[in-house]
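User: quick one, fold this
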Amino acid sequence: MGKPIGWGKCSILVKDLDTPSAKWIKLPTPKENTTKLTPTKGDKKEAPIEGGENEAVKYSANKYVLEYVLRRLAGRKKPFKDTNGIIQNRFAIFVQPEDITVPGPRIDETVVSLADEFSTEEGGLLTYTHDALKPDTGNIVKWCTTTKDLSTVKEGAALADTDVPFTDIDV
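Assistant:
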């Protein structure tokens, strides 16, 4: 049997960075197959010389977007306050894979936006996009694990930093 892979049902935590003493909040389970971290490769700069070869190549840093879709259900409120899709505060985010021994992406600072959708096939959907910002230290995306199994935590529950100690597996 091979090693575990980070696919399947995930759990998502977010933390409001602009609210003092904010805690991590467990989001509802996203719609199937909608949670995705997408990198945009940094721009490539080349220094060509006669004959077409490159004397040097340089890349700028990658950019990252983490996106997921939540369903509108009876009694379920939006997890972020917005005005026409604009969410004022900055948020940290962590995605825990179904197998908690597999690292998931943690982004220390993001700007969040919302696209509200509705169809008679799917009902109401909330598509959240987290655009990653450069952190004070380290990589924009940190691959982490935590010993806390977030699948056992109720939607909307608040967790202190001490409840979810992160281990960055690349440090």
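User: anything notable?
Assistant: The two ends are 27 Å apart (CA to CA).
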